[in-house]
Amino acid sequence: MRSSDDRVYLAPVDHLRAVAAVLVVLYHGCQLLSARIEGRRFVPATDWLYSANPAATLVFEGHTGVALFMVLSGFIFTVGAYGRPVRYGRFLTNRLLRIYPLYLVVALLGLATQVTLPTFQDLLRILTFATPAQPYGGVFWTLCVEMQFYLVFPLLCRLLAERGPGALLRLLAAVFLLRALVWLSSPAPEPHTASLYLGLAGRIDQFLLGMLAAWVYVHHRDRLRARWLPPVALALALGLLWSFNQVHGFVSDSPLKLAWSGAEGAVWALVVAAYVAGARENGGGRLSRGAARLGEISFSVYLTHFMVLTVIGEWGWFPAALPPVWAAFAVTLLVALPLTVAVSFLTYHAIELPFLRLRRPYTGAPPTAEPPRPRQRESYRGR
């Protein structure tokens, strides 16, 4: 799986990374800049954007790119490590080499925007990703959730290999039940679900569903290659996001939101498995290569786009002939996204890539099959 199939496997994964990164940039651009055009600070409860158009809701609910990233994390690591022993220390070291260098640069630059000298508590918050109040820190919470998942992934991967998908399905059911009990036991008259959105307690479904998608991909890849499956999976994702937008799901504290993480993760897991499995039939033209390159630098896009949007918001020029939402979308698509890609290309090669080259393989050789035991004499006598 790790040799001859790598070229087939990595390109479609990078395509999906690119989609996730672009969704997040468009989402933040439309939501934040449209409020900025109208001269106010964006407040989700009152300024959230809604539309009956499914294409528009895909952008307005583009935070779903985070869910896609998390499903991809579970999928990628499981495909690479399934059936192999994971060296825990190397695995975590590789994860830190992947995340920490660029994150520290962005976080420290955000800290430099303050007029006071940084304190020890400020530095401690940076080391633990607890810096959402920074001007560029709106996405740091996802890194904290990712690191929490990395801590338990080797155990979950071994559980999947030894006990099968049923073990993860039972874990999913247990997490959902415990999450509902926590919500029901809250003393608040209308319990908030924001902590479930921002923490592993509400996001582990998406990692687990990514792992389950990887198991299906490894064992039933041929069945996933039906041509109708990717468009059907994408239609389900669009329909779910449209429904979520219509019921004002992001700002709602409805008990139905307890199941949102799992539902969102399930449709993206289906999209990931179907798209990657069908990638053998996909062309390798310029569009594919360009999307793969964008996916390769998607982490830089994710961490730097807030900087670009902040500069554009302070710059304050927007096409006056367009309604605020359309103006924000146009500026994000035509200005913010290209600038972010340009900045990310530089940060990837200057900051990320040197550390990525320090990573070492973290999986051992798959265990050899146990030789068949010789039959006992009693078995011959029984014949």
- Spans with pLDDT under 50 lasting ≥5 residues? 1-8, 369-383
Q: How does the helix and strand content classify structurally?
A: mainly alpha
Describe the biggest sheet?
none
Q: Tell me the β content.
A: under 5%
Distance between the termini: 42 Å
Tell me the series of helices and strands, N- to C-terminal: HHHHHHHHHHHHHHHH
Mean pLDDT: 87
- Total strands: 0
Tell me, briefly, the overall form.
Answer: globular
Helix content: 55-70%
Tell me the radius of gyration. 23 Å
Number of domains: 1
SS field, number of helical segments: 16
What labels describe this entry?
383 residues, mainly alpha, disordered C terminus
List the helices and strands and how they pair.
Elements: H1 6-37, H2 44-47, H3 54-60, H4 64-81, H5 88-112, H6 120-127, H7 140-163, H8 165-184, H9 194-198, H10 200-219, H11 229-246, H12 260-277, H13 286-296, H14 298-315, H15 324-356, H16 377-382
Helix pairs in contact: 1-4, 1-12, 1-13, 1-14, 1-15, 3-11, 4-7, 4-10, 4-12, 5-7, 5-14, 5-15, 7-8, 7-10, 8-10, 10-12, 11-12, 14-15
Could you characterize what this model shows?
It is built from 16 helices and no strands. By secondary structure, the protein is mostly helical. It has one domain (6-382). The chain is globular and about 65 Å long. Residues 1-8 and 369-383 have low confidence and may be disordered.
